[in-house]
Amino acid sequence: MKIITWNINSVRIRIPLLQKLVHLYNPDIIALQETKVEDRLFPVTECINLGYKYITYSGQKSYNGVAILSRISFESTFVINLYNDEKRHIAINIGELSIHNFYVPAGGDIPDANVNIKFKHKLCYVDFMNAWFLNNKSKKDKIILLGDLNIAPLESDVWSSYQLRNVVSHTDIERKKLMHNITSFNWIDAVRFFSGKHEKLYSWWSYRNVDWSKSDRGRRLDHIWISHPLESKIKSCIIIKDARGWDMPSDHVPVMLEIET
């Protein structure tokens, strides 16, 4: 089974890129974030035409929004309204496997929860995520957590940890909270499972960088975590960096997990 997570940054305007992704990688399941579309306007027909008969989404106009496209039927779908009823989570169940798709708040520009309500919101959201899994799931369950988590937890997840230490997405408090989520539920970071902790890896490059590839000032904000019962099933997990160079790209690139079923 191939599963892709991608912050598509507006699904309707990037249908051609979604078509290209499907043509090149043929995933079974695609989890999208930042779809930026109300449910009544979601491009269902276009997704069905790509071969994804089973679709679930939770969206709002212009902001946020998540969706899961699947070629495999799922028994149920549900949404966790973790904070302020923003459209940031959707999940599906396929047999014993549950897949949770998250879009964590970006957090604004000022890394101080006392003066920046957006940053406070982000920190609370990460805490709520952790509490939900600890209270509602077992570490023995087969779970995949993926999405745009908007935090680069390791020094090797950013182009310069020294220069970004006080920049939202790589501050000490964000990194500690995300790593606490990983350790408290024993999640396995699927990308790092194969690459180790020291290789520089990114999934996001700012639109402000005219030559994103040459400057390569990226951050790894998009993640796939798996619960320990799935560890022996992992075949690969890659970041599809080339997607940043496609026409009219998202500033994020897809991450793909391949797992035995």
From TrEMBL:
<feature type="binding site">
    <location>
        <position position="251"/>
    </location>
    <ligand>
        <name>Mg(2+)</name>
    </ligand>
</feature>
<feature type="site" description="Interaction with DNA substrate">
    <location>
        <position position="252"/>
    </location>
</feature>
<keyword id="KW-0378">Hydrolase</keyword>
<feature type="active site" description="Proton acceptor">
    <location>
        <position position="252"/>
    </location>
</feature>
<dbReference type="InterPro" id="IPR037493">
    <property type="entry name" value="ExoIII-like"/>
</dbReference>
<dbReference type="InterPro" id="IPR036691">
    <property type="entry name" value="Endo/exonu/phosph_ase_sf"/>
</dbReference>
<dbReference type="InterPro" id="IPR005135">
    <property type="entry name" value="Endo/exonuclease/phosphatase"/>
</dbReference>
<feature type="site" description="Important for catalytic activity">
    <location>
        <position position="222"/>
    </location>
</feature>
<dbReference type="Pfam" id="PF03372">
    <property type="entry name" value="Exo_endo_phos"/>
</dbReference>
<feature type="active site" description="Proton donor/acceptor">
    <location>
        <position position="148"/>
    </location>
</feature>
<keyword id="KW-0460">Magnesium</keyword>
<dbReference type="InterPro" id="IPR020847">
    <property type="entry name" value="AP_endonuclease_F1_BS"/>
</dbReference>
<comment type="similarity">
    <text>Belongs to the DNA repair enzymes AP/ExoA family.</text>
</comment>
<feature type="domain" description="Endonuclease/exonuclease/phosphatase">
    <location>
        <begin position="4"/>
        <end position="252"/>
    </location>
</feature>
<keyword id="KW-0464">Manganese</keyword>
<feature type="binding site">
    <location>
        <position position="7"/>
    </location>
    <ligand>
        <name>Mg(2+)</name>
    </ligand>
</feature>
<dbReference type="GO" id="GO:0004519">
    <property type="term" value="F:endonuclease activity"/>
</dbReference>
<dbReference type="InterPro" id="IPR004808">
    <property type="entry name" value="AP_endonuc_1"/>
</dbReference>
<feature type="binding site">
    <location>
        <position position="150"/>
    </location>
    <ligand>
        <name>Mg(2+)</name>
    </ligand>
</feature>
<feature type="binding site">
    <location>
        <position position="34"/>
    </location>
    <ligand>
        <name>Mg(2+)</name>
    </ligand>
</feature>
<feature type="binding site">
    <location>
        <position position="148"/>
    </location>
    <ligand>
        <name>Mg(2+)</name>
    </ligand>
</feature>
<feature type="site" description="Transition state stabilizer">
    <location>
        <position position="150"/>
    </location>
</feature>
<dbReference type="GO" id="GO:0006281">
    <property type="term" value="P:DNA repair"/>
</dbReference>
<keyword id="KW-0479">Metal-binding</keyword>
<dbReference type="GO" id="GO:0046872">
    <property type="term" value="F:metal ion binding"/>
</dbReference>
<dbReference type="GO" id="GO:0008311">
    <property type="term" value="F:double-stranded DNA 3'-5' DNA exonuclease activity"/>
</dbReference>
<dbReference type="GO" id="GO:0003677">
    <property type="term" value="F:DNA binding"/>
</dbReference>
<feature type="binding site">
    <location>
        <position position="252"/>
    </location>
    <ligand>
        <name>Mg(2+)</name>
    </ligand>
</feature>
<feature type="active site">
    <location>
        <position position="103"/>
    </location>
</feature>
<protein>
    <submittedName>
        <fullName>Exodeoxyribonuclease III</fullName>
        <ecNumber>3.1.11.2</ecNumber>
    </submittedName>
</protein>
